Prior knowledge:
Order of helices and strands: EHEHHEHEHEHHHHHHHH
CATH topology of the largest domain: Serine Threonine Protein Phosphatase 5, Tetratricopeptide repeat
Number of strands: 5
Number of helices: 13
Structural class: alpha/beta
Shape: globular
Distance between the termini: 61 Å
Amino acid sequence: MSSSPIIMWFRRDLRLSDHPAFAAACNARRPVIPVVIRDDSVDALGAAPKWRWGLGVSHLAQSLEDKGSRLIHRSGDALEVLQALIEETGAGAVYWSRLYDPQAVVRDTKIKSTLKEAGIDARSYGGHLMFEPWTTETKTGGFYKVYTPFWRSVKDRDVDTPLPTPGKVPAPEAWPDSEDIADWHLGHAMQRGADVVRPFVRLGEDAARGRLGYFIGELVAGYDAGRDLPSADRTSNLSENLALGEISPHQCWSAGLDALHDGKDGAETFLKELVWREFAYHLMHHTPQILSDNWKEDRKASCRERV
Length: 307
């Protein structure tokens, strides 16, 4: 078991730097088999996000190849795919980064319990958020329903220092078969729109970190007011990268905190916007119905009355 491979399951964490699960796998001194799975959650995506996810996966595959590794592509039910890979490779562990939407939580909980029952070391790690949603509570023990007190409760909390990119990705003696991502036709529904949108995509972690550096160095001073002007290039433009995990919130927070300490106007507002992202996940964790319905009963009634 100590020398058996670790399957590193990539999802919405398409980077190698500041990646707790990936770093743990590489530091375990065991072969690492990076895997991406096209399951129902991917197939359910709309045209643009599915196309963009495919671009990110292809870029990650190239980054891994540059490290002497590779990305295995498989499609199907995630649990069944992982079980097949374990059987094929003799892997004794599966690592992944946590996701927080209800569908992912149900899937991942089932996968973890099933694999553990089979004697597989199944581990989930943070990295998609700075603060796990269940670690922030009001003084009375409940969850926060208003942003401002949530901000006050987390603004001085320690945030993990971003992890470096592993220097080496240990490879297995033999690689399992991989599907060709081109056969997945992830961009098919985009049609001609892909050519229109592609020049505006900041693809991969290097581009994301470069944009963050430019934003902090040149734009953050005018962020407080400029972010409300659609005609002005005053935002970080990192939403696509944060959504796919091509950059981590820890990296953004660290850069924003440095700017705040340097006295740059707009830095605190940028930090507050990062915490707005955390607050959205906090609400989703505690009130998952918020994804499809009003989360307050009185607002449901008000909407019905208006209709």
